[in-house]
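Standup notes
- HV: blocked on the assembly model, inputs below
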Amino acid sequence: MQYEKEFLRKLYKDLLDMRLLEKKMVDTYAQGRVPGHVHSGVGQEAAYVGVLTNFKEGDYYKRTHRVTAVPYMMGTSLDTFFGELLAKKTGNSGGRGGSLHIGELRTGDLGFSGTLGCDAAVGVGAAMTIDMEGRDNVAFVFMGDGTSSRGPVYEAMNLAAAWKLPVLFVCHNNQFAISTPCSYSIAAKNVVADRAPGYAMPAKVVDGTDVLAVYEAAKELLEGVRAGKGPAVLECKDYRWRGHFEGDQCAYRDAAVTEEWIENKDCVKNMEAMLVEQGVITPEEIAQMRTDFDREMDEAILRAEAAPEMEPEEIYDGLYV
Amino acid sequence: MSTAIVMPKAGLTMVEGTIAEWKVAEGAYVKKGDVLMEYENEKNTIDCEALGEGYVHIIAKEGDTIPVGEVIGMLAESEAELAQLAGGAAPAAPAASAETEEKGCARECPTCVHTAPAAAAPAVTGAVSAAVMADGHIRASGLAKKLAKEAGVSLADIAASGGPDGTRIIARDVRKYLEQPKAAPVAAAAPAGAEDEITETPWTGVRKAIARNMYNSLQEMAQCTATCEMDVTELLALRQKLVAQQEYLGCKITVNDLLCKAVAKMLVKHPLANATFDGKTLFSHKHVQLSVAVATEGGLMVPVVKNADTLPLVELSKTIKDLGTRAKEKKLREGEQGCGTFTVSNVGMFPIDMSTPIINPPEVAIMGFGRTTKKPVYVDGQFVPRDTMIAYMTFDHRVVDGLEVGGIFKDLQTLIEHPELILA
Amino acid sequence: MKVTYAKAIGDALKEEMRRDGKVLIYGEDVAQFGNIFGITRGMLEEFGPKRVRNTPITETAIIGSAIGAAETGLRPCVELMYSDFTMVAFTEIFHCVAKWRYMHGPEYKLPLVIRSASGASNGAGSEHSNTVESLFLHAPGLTIITPSCPYDAKGLLKSAIRSDNPVLFCEPKQLYQTKQDIPDDIYESDYTIPIGLADVKRPGKDVTLVAIGLMVPRALEAAGKLAAEGIDVEVIDPRTIAPLDKETIFASIRKTHMAAVVEEGNKTAGVGAELAAMFQEELYDELDGPVARIAALDVPMPYNIRMEKHSIPSVDRICASIRAMF
């Protein structure tokens, strides 16, 4: 497929920002500046970026706990992003939600449940709105391979399929449910894609580290979904570079395999090589982009740290309208 | 581990004690048996001894009135523990020690011989209201507490009618109490030109206990008083003879001694009146544990002459004198009060002919003697001047009835009008 | 006009759907079948298959999708058939519905209603007879409503549908066929009853009896009997269990100084447990005696109908419990 240069540069910029933001969170967490948990998605940025590059006005997406940086790509400011991460009033819920709940409805973010899988049908509900209003929009429902073992995921898939709702279920298969490999816990080779036929849904499996491959596979499935043919499944295979949470030493898996993925399947590095080779971007530009965004993030973190926290008398705010 | 020092229980009716003086300083090291502090109950000033050794941490201060069994201090095993206690660590509430719980009538008055097997000590609540529990806690609803506080009245004085067994003070009880006529209007109109002066005296310690016991006594018993005028001419003559021999006897026999001896002698024949009663069981005694009312500055004391019926007159006289002196000096020892079986109250030194005395619970009767009066008495066809005295007895009609009372007065009159029988 | 509780619910749904095209209803057997109690009968015909939808047996997806639909602009009024089935979707209700707005920020509004038929009815057995108010009282953010009469049911359901907060709407099954005489002009007017407002169903001066749902008519009957014995009972129906109208209830207790709570649910950790704790904590000085809890016995609901009746507070049991307070 042929792409415009500007399209590729934008795609690369999103991919790079996601990578840098994920790494920044890891570093900030290591410095003890983040109050809660951080689930690093370093190395897994391509699946989100590739799929959501297909996002258009009026679409919705239901994220997961990994990659945390997604809301930034979708339009949430760094101030809101770090405000929520650092539990400040400048966060989207003023520090009531935390890293799992960063995001804004106006950018299409439907929210997220930390009890994984319970929220799968939230995307189905958003698709009902689209359906009622007769729009050609879609709801993206992301889930991990671990979450795919949960019942509510299948209730959601069944309902979306039964009602032919515009939902693209995206399985982000990084091969581990915390410490348990999906090869151990799920008999199907492609954990969600292989089960899609049971709900009469089309499905595709794609290399989740190849951002263009992901983009193209999603685009292809979305044609049918936007046309009202019902939901579809896209399974993106990649690998979780770091532990489930920061501090997880990954003693349950072969470090050599991890090294191999990092060495050969780095979505950012591979895309850079391709773009430099094609002359779309220069190494100097890349270096400049990295430096600039790094500074932007550092400044946003400092602002977030200086921002006020909610006060005890505000603790009940947000319970009832 | 540190152990708690609690307000001891000395006497059946003791529900609280007031710390008179700590005899040791904070942090002092004491051994078992050392006197820790001195406390007052309704009857006495008593030493509180250490039950073990250790370092003393004082919690309740002098002047504090503390319910029996509540923590007044701690005994720390080590200085480190002491420092921790002194640092404000809250002491664990102690479970009532076995020793405290075992204290019953048997221990408090070793001379008692129970005829009923393992009879419980007569239960006597030490409070006006049935809502006052043994540990001093007062059962009352939140609203009742609020109303009482607003009215400035003590819940302990309010009769309870709420709760499943009528031991909870509820709002209507407080309202009923408040509607009763007041004992003394605080703001009485003073005559013009004279500024009235009101002295407020908190009714505490011995006075409070007396008030409670007296009120309780009338609330719980069916009290009835009988009187009998007796000719004491012969008795006074006998007393004069004995006084004349006081050097030989080693003591000055009083009229009261003779009356007490007479009563003790009489009571041996009337075990029904020589008894205690808890509402369920009557505990009749073989010997007479004679309570002798003694007026003191601090209030009425009632020390007990043990086995009064077995004592010769001289011994009885000496014992009564010793108890009376020590009662006035607040030096009565544990077990010398509160375990009597009958009380004698002699008001002969005052211009009082008679009264209707209130029974000292759990006893069932009290005998009083009024002043001696010269009266014309009709003897052998003519009036002659004789010394007379009214003997009067309040008895618990639940236990003692008229027939028994008649017998008691008949025997007593025989003894008093033929005083040689007292010595026989 | 004589209106049944079931009709009042159905009329509220219809009126709101006519008023606002964003309102839709879905759940198990609500379309052609018209709900197992007949409440939504005829609505498929009037509003069409997009606004009146049958779902598979899929409680978690019903609730999850209601969140997504509500936050993106619809006003779903979903049905979980029996309130017992809220527990199938407990996580979705407890974690997601109740907390969604708090966790994600004020931009996320959840105008959704979860309706379900609750409580015992003629041998429905252990898994189809529960009341669940007390379970969800523990989920701040959720509005819980249990109406006790047709008039309240209609007015409150309309308020619930118009609310931007998520509402759990409990309909005591035994009330569905109860009738109330409501003047036509009032019933047909677009009246609503504010959420969070208790109703004094019977004024009295001796004891405040807080009654919920099915227990309200029983409490009123008991109050009539007790009045003849000289005990004047004030019956208060909170109507909204959460957030609770403490003001009305507290004002009553400050007047009567005695309080009791009667509910259809189990006694242990029931609504009465919470209210009794609240009363003693906040009104200790006003209470002239312990707060009585009158509730179902702590057993799974027996199938045997005589035992079912024995388990749930009856008029006689309410009378006996109140008498014992004096």
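- HV (later): unblocked. The radius of gyration of chain A is 19 Å. DSSP finds eleven helices and seven strands in chain A.
- Next: hand off to the docking folks.
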